[in-house]
Amino acid sequence: MDEPRHMTPDEFRRCGAALIERIARYMEEVEQYPVLSQAEPGSVRARLPSAAPEQGEPFADLLRDIDEIILPGLTHWQSPNFYAYFPANASGPSILGDLLSSGLGVQGMLWATSPACTELETHVLDWLVDLLGLPQEFKSSAAGGGVIQDSASSSTLTALIAARERASAGAVNEHGAARGPDGAKEPRLTVYTSRHAHSSIEKGVKIAGLGRENLRLVEADECHAMRVDALEAAIAADRAAGAVPAMVCATVGTTSSGAVDPLPAIGALCRREGIWLHVDAAHAGSATICPEHRELIDGLEHADSYTFNPHKWLLTNFDCSCFWVADRAALIEALSVLPEYLRNRATESGAVIDYRDWQIPLGRRFRALKLWFVIRHYGAEGLRAHVRNCVALADWFAAQVEAHDAFALAAPVSAGLVCFRHRAGDALNEALMNRLNESGALYLTHTRLDDRLVLRLAVGGTATRRAHVERAWARIVETAGALSAEEFAA
Amino acid sequence: MDEPRHMTPDEFRRCGAALIERIARYMEEVEQYPVLSQAEPGSVRARLPSAAPEQGEPFADLLRDIDEIILPGLTHWQSPNFYAYFPANASGPSILGDLLSSGLGVQGMLWATSPACTELETHVLDWLVDLLGLPQEFKSSAAGGGVIQDSASSSTLTALIAARERASAGAVNEHGAARGPDGAKEPRLTVYTSRHAHSSIEKGVKIAGLGRENLRLVEADECHAMRVDALEAAIAADRAAGAVPAMVCATVGTTSSGAVDPLPAIGALCRREGIWLHVDAAHAGSATICPEHRELIDGLEHADSYTFNPHKWLLTNFDCSCFWVADRAALIEALSVLPEYLRNRATESGAVIDYRDWQIPLGRRFRALKLWFVIRHYGAEGLRAHVRNCVALADWFAAQVEAHDAFALAAPVSAGLVCFRHRAGDALNEALMNRLNESGALYLTHTRLDDRLVLRLAVGGTATRRAHVERAWARIVETAGALSAEEFAA
Question: Does B459 share its domain with B333?
């Protein structure tokens, strides 16, 4: 029988060297590309053959097609001129840690299926508790522990399932969610978050079978942070109607504007009411590696779970979302299913963590490697310097906005995110954003605050330096001026 | 302000070269390692410092610790002597495609956030419809389409949410799941799968808020395949009790024994009853790249969704689970949430796919690259040759089992999986497995069939050749002989 043409280790050396070189060159060149892809829908597919090849092709053909087909179809998240959404910054050590994960090809669903995959993850997440100033209860040496998820969406869904089971004493897992109190014996469960919270909360509530109408989008104050009096009133009203409040999701750094919900008051309320408090610091959480930003998580000692994404701002390429719980037993109880074919002696000894019970899927990559590589390459000092550079650049940009007659800040600057707008109104701001993005010189996105269209500039790129932000600001002023003149001429 | 010590492109070239060399050497050496890690709980952590470094460390220190700390703590999934669970095989082109994904660092949640990430994925999944002989309705040019998920667990959960919403006309997303018919207006939803189906079905049903008691584990026939008469009876009983059957999950190649549920009859029943049919071919699905194995998916034209994992048997490293739907509108309707900050012109044009609406999380890696690299490196012919080699080795092994007095097959050989046992009973089989695994010479796992402990040998490693399987068989016979003699002596 024919052997398939496997890539030999020596071929892997040669092809690997060529690809490392291509990626290094990409790092050198990425600044020159239009940040937002200028591809038309279907233009990438139009260049691909309609059927897969019958015979294998040389690696050189792949390298060619990366240049000719893939690169023109990319939006360059690693460009120093990328200011859209939140960053998803990468770094050399992270890319190499991820390469090692792919190269070892282990699958860490159980401790036994690669002990190092589990133990390094537990260990690095314990390190991060200290590095980030998180409550000691989140450590694996206490009753808690950390785990890497693919995204904050998954972290939040995981927290929601644990909260749901705690609130229902396991009844939802067993019997399904309920729509009480109208006529049924079992009460409905309710969930609370700010109206500025991330869409993943609503998506999670729907996936978990709790129903969108049982999610309360709590009113916010003038800084777009959750109002605790409104939260308290919503909880009281639901209890009066016979519902059981299951979870509050507070946000440290909303996607819209970087607003920070008041954790101390929310936490005290959740403790009093016996409600699971999950804290979503997907982007801003990286900042607490600097002591001067620790106030962001004041009150976190009341939280039952916490998530932040090193794949956003901590130089670790997607996907890497860290998630901690204060009581790992509640999490495992909610998510564990143990079929015969996964039974093994290490699991039965009770001495190990099986991370399959800490997440939605069963299988898992060795993602701790890239985080370990990043922390060791940069050291805590290097990571702090990175955050401080980004914050300083955002502060500089915000100062320009404030000093300019035609522009205004639309929210307090928060963890590298500047929300601003041109005073001429939504139409000009939208035109401004589109023209800037079409220019390829930079990429930023928008939100709506106080019913007005607002531009968001999130500084977090690994390669973003003062000169880039200065050029971005100059381009924004110049483009806005041109648009205003056109409007005047029209 | 201090700049963090970012890795320059030139440092990346040097460190990258060293790591490529290390991985190539791992490929050459992996056969020599004990397959199942012999680490004790805590032994990896004991070698790691209790706090993260304050200053950055040289890359050479990381390379040293890979050898000294990580490798001894691995279970070697890429060893040619790995026969446990199902394989999670990798290959050079796959590792390099994944490296490119990390190196480009794009995030494909929306078409606009990297058009090539979306379009290559759609395109390669259309290729696979033809390569694997799947129904044309699954193509994006029809009403369907494919997407890459992290795991079959997530594919199944995604299917379940879509099925749940179709069965409830969107009511669960809006109002939450219901526990009817006892007293409530809204009926409960029920789900059906074989009692031999994967544990991820139960986990998904619980996550989705439907309740474990609403999952019917349908009885199986003597080949461990779902009995259609039992399925039909369960559906009828639930309807009579006022429930609404929402989904049937059929398995092509169960994890326990490789059993194949009868899709033609199940599909016809689901059509008649208007029930969403999801087909889980996580492992065996790779086989249908060979025309002689297409009978595995006879009847798939009745399915609403289908999943198989290239990260199991198709030479693509974890994570890469392909998932198709026949009606993408039903999927998107069930999972779409569109906040202001994700609005963009491409989405509003309706001309593009935004894959965030096809999955549980929001963010996503450029995973299509590794699958594209694998298909192009091997060509369809190479992929077929790989599957045929594995199947031939499993058949050879099964023939040895059948020819040996002391051993017996415990199920029909299926897609590279051999279930067998020693005739001396459970105690000897368990001792045999443990001694083999402790020897480091090979790694296999077990299941229970017909209330007996059964050993599973899954052939799928990229580097597994005839000589490895021959040595595995010789070792099994020899170890069983030694155990029998010990027992006799005792």
Answer: no
pTM of the model: 0.97
Does B256 sit within 8 Å of A211, measured CB to CB?
A: no
Give pLDDT tens digits along chain A (490 positions). 578 999 999 999 999 999 999 999 999 999 999 999 999 999 999 999 999 999 999 999 999 999 999 999 999 999 999 999 999 999 999 999 999 999 999 999 999 999 999 999 999 999 999 999 999 999 999 999 999 999 999 999 999 999 999 999 999 999 999 887 654 568 899 999 999 999 999 999 999 999 999 999 999 999 999 999 999 999 999 999 999 999 999 999 999 999 999 999 999 999 999 999 999 999 999 999 999 999 999 999 999 999 999 999 999 999 999 999 999 999 999 999 888 888 888 888 888 999 999 999 999 999 999 999 999 999 999 999 999 999 999 999 999 999 999 999 999 999 999 999 999 999 999 999 999 999 999 999 999 999 999 999 999 999 999 999 999 999 999 999 999 998 766 5
**Same domain, residue pair A270 and A414:** no
Least CA distance to B110: which residue of chain A? A75
Cβ–Cβ below 8 Å for B341 and A447: yes
CB A99 within 8 A of CB B19: yes
- Is residue B210 in a domain? yes
State the total domains in chain B: 3
Residue whose C-alpha is closest to residue A207's, from B210, B329, B193, B338? B210
Structural domain contains residue B222: yes
CA distance B366 to B116: 9
* Same domain assignment for residues B158 and B181: yes
CB–CB of A173 and B381 under 8 A?
Answer: no
- For residue B422, give the H/E element and its range: strand B417-422
Same domain, yes or no, for B359 and B382? no
- Picking from A1, A44, A346, the nearest residue to B115 by CB comes out as A44
* Chain A interface mutation, best of B59, B95, B189, B389, highest count of A Cβ atoms under 10 Å: B95
Task: Please name the member of A199, A209, A346 whose beta carbon is closest to the beta carbon of B172.
Answer: A209
Edge-first strand order for the sheet with A445-449 is: A407-409, A417-422, A452-458, A445-449
A18 and A167 housed in the same domain: no
d(Cα B393, Cα B385) in Å, to the nearest integer? Answer: 12
The last residue of a domain, from among B365, B392, B407: B365
Q: How do A276-280 and A244-251 pair as beta strands?
A: parallel
The most distant pair of C-alpha atoms in chain B lies apart, rounded to whole Å, by: 79
For chains A and B, CB pairs below 8 A equal: 571
* Range(s) of the domain holding residue B164: 106-365
* Interchain CB distance below 8 Å, B209 and A15: no
CATH number, domain containing residue B65 = 1.20.1340.10
Helix (H, G, I), strand (E, B) or coil at B77: coil
